[in-house]
Amino acid sequence: MSINEVIQRIRPVPHERMEAAQAHLDNLTKPRRSLGVLEEIAARMAALTEETKPAVRNPRIYVFVGDHAVNEEGVSAYPPEVTTLMVHNFLGGGAAINVLARRAGAEVRVVDVGMRDEVSLPGLIGRNVRRGAANIARGPAMILEEARQALSVGIEMAGQARAEGSTLLATGEMGIGNTTPSAALYAALLPHDPGKTAGRGTGLDEAGLKRKVAVVKQALDVNRERMHDPLSILAAVGGLEIAGIAGLCLGGAAHGLPVVVDGFISGAGALVAMRMAPSVRDYLFFSHLSAEAGHRLYFESEGLRPMLDLDMRLGEGTGAAIGIQIIEDAVAIYNEMATFQDLGIEAGA
Amino acid sequence: MSINEVIQRIRPVPHERMEAAQAHLDNLTKPRRSLGVLEEIAARMAALTEETKPAVRNPRIYVFVGDHAVNEEGVSAYPPEVTTLMVHNFLGGGAAINVLARRAGAEVRVVDVGMRDEVSLPGLIGRNVRRGAANIARGPAMILEEARQALSVGIEMAGQARAEGSTLLATGEMGIGNTTPSAALYAALLPHDPGKTAGRGTGLDEAGLKRKVAVVKQALDVNRERMHDPLSILAAVGGLEIAGIAGLCLGGAAHGLPVVVDGFISGAGALVAMRMAPSVRDYLFFSHLSAEAGHRLYFESEGLRPMLDLDMRLGEGTGAAIGIQIIEDAVAIYNEMATFQDLGIEAGA
Q1: Mean model confidence pLDDT for chain A
Q2: What percent of chain B stands above pLDDT 90?
Q3: Which residues between 285 and 344 in chain B have a beta carbon less than 8 angstroms from any beta carbon of chain A?
Q4: What share of chain A is helix, strand, coil (3-state, %, to 5)?
Q5: Is residue A29 domain-resident?
Q6: CA geometry: angle at B196 spanning B191 and B199, to 5°?
Q7: Is residue B27 part of a domain?
C-alpha cells in the first residue's frame, strides 16, 4: 500500500462502539467510572476490536534506530557510537527495554532505519534508508523520498505484526541526538516556541540547553522554505527513526490495531502521524509523560492525557512497555469482572 | 508482640544501603536516573532487603473489611449491605481487586475486622473486633481497647505473611462509608480543614458533600476531648478496617517488609501508622493518587509522591495491585539489566 492508501484506510472509532463498551463497564461490580483511566483504556480497546472481547495477544515493541548529524552542533551528552552499542545491548537482551518488555510479555523488534554505522547483527531488522539524518541546522535531515521510505518501513512493520497475530503494537527508538529533531518537530507541528519544546535530553547542562534551543531555531530557519506539510516537515527537521514511528502509528491504525506510544521522541513520530491523518489519534495510547521539558506542553496542546508520570526520560520504548501492562490490566478488568447480575443486585449509582 | 514492641522494632532504612543501591543503578546501561521513579523504587526495595538482590515473592494484598454507623447521617451513596455483598464478590474472585491481583501475581486475603453483618464464608479471615464502628458524629467509633485489637489484627497478618514467605505486602479495604472517617483522620492528623479533606466518595452530589463535611466537623467536635495521640484519634474518628491497615503497615515495617499502600482510605491507615512510628514511612510505597479530593492534599502535606495517577477511586486495593506491578518492573530493572562493564564501556554521565 502507498502512504496515501494507508491514510485513506484509517477510520475513526465509531462512537456507538465506545458507548456499548462503556455500558458493559458500567455493569461491572464497582461504582460507575470508579476505575478512571483504566475504564477509558478498556472502552477504547473494546471499541477497537472486531471480536466480542478485547484481547492483548503477542504485543510487540518496535525500536526504530537512526542517527543524527546534528550532533556535530554539541546537542547531546553522548557520542553517536552509543547508538550502535545500544543496538548490541538490545539484541543481547540487557537493555531496560528488554527487561520491561519481558515483564509486559512483549516482543522487542529492533529496526535499523537510519543508523550511521553499517551494522549487521542477528536479529537486527535491516531497513536502512540512509546512514543517519543530515545536520538539520545546515539543511534538511533527508530528502522527501527518504522520508517516504522510512515511513513505509514503519507501515511494513505494522502489517507484518498483524499478519503474525499481534493485536497491540508499541513504539520505541534509539538515536543519540534525537531529542533535537523531536523538539524541532514539536515546534513546527504543535506549533510552539522552540524555547519551550527543547529540553535537556539525556543530560545537557544550562549552556548545552541554550545551544540546543539555538540549534532548533536555526534548523527551523534554514529549512523554512522546505516545510509545507507534515511529510516535508518530517523530511526537513525530523529523523529516520521518527519517520519509522510515524509509519508504525499510521500502519497500525490502518490495520485497526492500537499503538502504544512511548515518550518524547515517539511523541514526535505520533504527532507527524496525527497531522497526516487526524483519526489515527483514536488508535494511539500515550503511555507516559517524559521528564523531557517539552512533553507536558505536547499533551496540553493536543488535549491528551498520558497514562503514567514516572519521571522517565530513557526512551527505547520503556514507557510503552509499562503502558502495555496498564492496558493489559484494563482489558482484564473488562473481560474478567463479575457483573451486578452475577451478584444478584441492580446496577450501582 | 505488643503494639509498643512492634513500634520499637521499626528501624529507618540505612542511608548507606540506599547509596549502595543507587550506585548499582548508576552502573546499568542507561543515562543516570533516566528511569526516574522506577529507580527510586528499585533503590528502596534493594535497601530494604537483607538479600543481595531485591525480590518480590508471594505478594499479598490484605483487604480489611469494616462497617460504619456514620452512614446513618447520609454520607454515602450506597447502603451498608453492599459491604457484605462485596465480600462475597471478593471471595468469589469477581471483583476488580481479584482481577488486578491476578495480573500482579498477588494473593488476596480478606479480613473481617469490623463487619456489621455476621458472615462466615470459606476464605474469609474472621477477626471481627466489633460489629461496625459506631457513629462518629455522635461519639467515638470504638473504645481504645478495640482500636488496639484491630491494629493487632493487621500486625498479626503481617507476621503471618512473613512466616509464609511473602516479601511484599499491600493494603486494601472495603467498608461502605469509610471515606468519612478517613477524611476525619486526615483532618485530625495532617492536620487540615475538613472542608478540604472530605470528597465525594463513591458518588455524592453537592448537597451530599456539604452534609459530609458537616458530619466530619461534628465528629471532630464531639470527640475533641478523646483525641490525644494517634491511637486515641483512630479510636475516636477512625474505623476498624483502617486500624487493620495501620497495623499491617506497622507490622510489615517491624518485619522489614515493604508495604504498598492503596488509595484514600488506606492512606488514612498509613497516616496513623506514620504518626505512631515515623520510620514506617521508609517501608511504605504509595501506589496512586485517588480521585477523592483530599488525597492530593495528603501527598502535598506529607511531601510524598504516589507512583500513579489513574483517576481511580474504587479502593479494595486496586491501586496497590497496579503498584505491585510497577514495583516488580523496578526490581526487574535492578536485577536484570546489563552494566556498562558488560558492554565494555565506561559508565555514562
Answers
A1: 96
A2: 94
A3: 291, 307-314, 318, 322, 325-326, 328-329, 332-333, 336-338, 342-343
A4: 55, 10, 35
A5: no
A6: 120
A7: no
